[in-house]
Amino acid sequence: MIMKVEPRDVAPRLATGAFILNSGLSKLKADEGTAAGVHGMACVAYPFLKKLDAQRFTRLLAWSEIAVGGALLAPFVPTPLAGLALTGFSGGLVGLYLRVPGLRESGSLRPTQNGVPMAKDSWMLGIGIGFLGADSRWGGGCATRRRRRRCGRH
To answer: Membrane-spanning regions, if any (predicted)?
Structure first.
């Protein structure tokens, strides 16, 4: 079964895919200082990551970003599947934003000046969730005429 990418999904797939792929490719070249910074921030939000070496963590993160970005850019990857990858990945980043002190104003979801770059991950989470409902076989629509009537679609 060949699944095509809907025209409405092309722009968000290209934009988020290129952004994430570029981020992953950049992290592959990370020096020790950069890797330590990336790892340190991740460890604040997710303490279990302290078990990993900073360089190893950063390379794993880079390859994860390359895989997610590539899935979004590849037209043969169904949008709901690419959305699942994007939702999982960006959900982890939003968790980072919510858990790292100093990224949000006290008692609020509003980002501080330092948190603005991390707050953008909420957009990727929204796009990923939107992609999950992009195909009726994944729960985004009604498959039969009888079910369409119940859904309010005629």
So the answer is: 60-77, 83-100
Give pLDDT tens digits for 36-78: 999 999 999 999 999 999 999 999 999 999 999 999 999 999 9
Compute and round to an integer the Cα radius of gyration of the chain.
18
Residue 149: pLDDT over 90: no
Termini Cα distance of the chain: 27
Classify residue 1: in a domain, yes or no: no
Comparing CA positions, the residue from 68, 77, 53 lying closest to residue 23 is 68
Separation between Cα atoms, residue 50 and residue 30, nearest integer Å:
18
User: Is-contact 101 44, C-beta < 8 A?
Assistant: yes
Neighbours of 130 (CB within 10 A): 17
Question: 90-96 long-range contacts, Cβ below 8 Å, gap at least 24?
Answer: 90/121, 90/122, 90/124, 90/125, 90/127, 90/128, 91/125, 91/128, 92/46, 93/118, 93/121, 93/124, 93/125, 94/121, 94/122, 94/125, 95/45, 95/46, 96/41, 96/42, 96/45, 96/46, 96/121
User: How large is the average pLDDT for residues 108-129?
Assistant: 93
Q: Is residue 104 part of a domain?
A: yes
